[in-house]
Amino acid sequence: MSRPVTGVHQVLNLIGGVLTVSTVMSLYALASLRFDAAQHADLAAKFEFSAFLIVYVTVSVVIARSIELFWISRSSFIDEGHIPGLPRVLLFGAAIILGLTTFGVSHGLSINGLYLSTGAMAAIIAFAMQRTLGDLFSGISLSVEHPFKIGDWIELEDGTKGEVRDLNWRATRLRGWDNTTLIVPNSKLAAQTFRNLHGPDHRYSPMYTVTLPPEIDPRFAKSLLLEVALKCKRLAKTPLPSVRLVDSGTVPYRYIVWLHFPSYPSMFAGREEFFRELHYSLKQAGIQAAPSMQDVRFQAAEKVVATPPTTLHALRSLDFASLFDEAELESLNSRSYSAIFDAGTVILPEGEVSPSVYIVLNGVVETSVTDASGKTRVLNPLVSGEYFGLASMLTDAPSFQTFTASSDVVLVQIDRKCFKDIASQREDLLQGFAEIVESRMAIAASMKNDPGSRRAGPLMDVLQRIEKILGS
């Protein structure tokens, strides 16, 4: 593998070419002083001819190298600091031919005779090398069109996959997963349809099918699959995974999970992680994947029992649940209600006061914030068991963030009056709320990168606000 070309390498290459030209011309000048024009006219003429021929060829190579370096520095199709073999050969060949032609014209040589004498030979060679020339021109076509670049992975019509390592005048070299090299003639590659899977700098987004029993609530199933995908650390952070129910007319139901990996090579480890997490999550939820069965069994099937997370279970997992006893949690649970938001719905805009605390029961909620520079930044999404709106509801402060349904979500809402009724009987509850709210507001303010946006103030200020809201 060749090293990337840097600015220092470019300067050294060009200086080397200039030094070569200067050396040849210096040797010519020194030698000319030693020749007696009368006695060594023929020798002097031959030396002059050779010296200038070397100079023209060297200048042609320097120009070609300069174009190559410029091409490398500006082209997005070139990887690893070098261009493929075929374009490089054509570039330097054309430069040398142009240099020789210029040399011949400047020295009064006739190039018409050369063209005529080589024309018949070229025709014979072309006839004998039809397939080779086909590979050559197919390679030129691939080089001009750029359907792939060095480092990309491509898939041929027969399913063969390989990483492009080089494109020369005859064939394209692919390296497979088994570290072997596949040599594909350029004409054969240009004549077929192939897929460019791209390289390490291009996102790869495949879809996978998951089948689940029809007894599972589709909203719960979609939420579960989405949460599984969000647990995977090898997935790209943006865009978020997507889950769709694609077929409910057959048993089992079929769901499509659309995942995004940083690149095609990273997909294999990421795919394994997804299916591993899927296995654990389905097992924990009491769900068995429903593969298509071909044999007939005369055995009573076990009834699928899949219990979506309950509101009471979600309440017990929250950080402020420790402030309440079991009876108070059951009271909140009995007075809460569910709300369903379609994907893309803005649940709580930034700058508005929240009327309730929202607990995510199913689905994913995207959070975003406008920072001090006015740019909107997307933060970590909220999944099942997380909540928002508590600080805004208890202090009447505008929300620091915007909360949007990234998927179809089921939220549990608990209004301010529910907390107020319990707080009227427990004065110690307000202090605990103040500590939680002050902490969450401090975190939200740091996310905005604007220390001045911490509207909540110190703990005593927060406590006074909560006392005003819940104690009134």
Plain-language structure description:
The chain is 46% helix and 17% strand. The chain is built from 14 helices and 16 strands. A 5-stranded antiparallel beta sheet has the order 4-3-2-1-5. Strands 9-16-11-14 form a 4-stranded antiparallel beta sheet. A hairpin with a 5-residue loop joins strand 3 and strand 4 (181-185). The protein is elongated, with a radius of gyration of 36 Å. It starts with 6 loop residues before the first helix and ends with a helix. Mean pLDDT is 77; it is low at 1-6, 77-81, 293-297 and 452-456.
Task: Itemize the secondary structure elements and their pairings.
Layout (H helix, E strand, L loop, with lengths): L6 H28 L6 H34 L10 H22 L5 H17 L1 H16 L7 E3 L5 E7 L3 E5 L5 E5 H5 L4 E4 L8 E6 L5 H14 L10 E6 L5 E6 L8 H18 L26 H6 L9 H10 L1 E5 L4 E3 L7 E7 L2 E6 L5 E3 L8 E2 L1 H6 L6 E4 L3 E7 H8 L4 H20 L11 H13 L1
Antiparallel strand pairs: 1-2, 1-5, 2-3, 3-4, 6-8, 7-8, 9-16, 10-15, 11-14, 11-16, 12-13, 12-15
Helix pairs in contact: 1-2, 2-3, 7-8, 13-14
Summarize the structure.
With 472 residues, the protein is an alpha+beta fold. Helix content is 46%, strand content 17%.
Task: Pick out its properties.
472 residues, alpha+beta, five-stranded antiparallel sheet, four-stranded antiparallel sheet, 16 strands, elongated
Helix content: 40-55%
Number of helices: 14
Main β sheet profile: 5 strands, antiparallel
Return the string of H and E elements.
HHHHHEEEEHEEHEEHHHEEEEEEHEEHHH
Report the mean per-residue pLDDT as an integer. 77
**Percent of residues in beta strands:** 15-25%
Number of strands: 16
In order across it, which strands form the biggest sheet? 4-3-2-1-5
Rg: 36 Å
Shape: elongated
Separation of termini? 74 Å
- The parts where pLDDT drops under 50 for at least 5 residues are 1-6, 77-81, 293-297, 452-456
Task: Classify the secondary structure makeup into a structural class.
Answer: alpha+beta
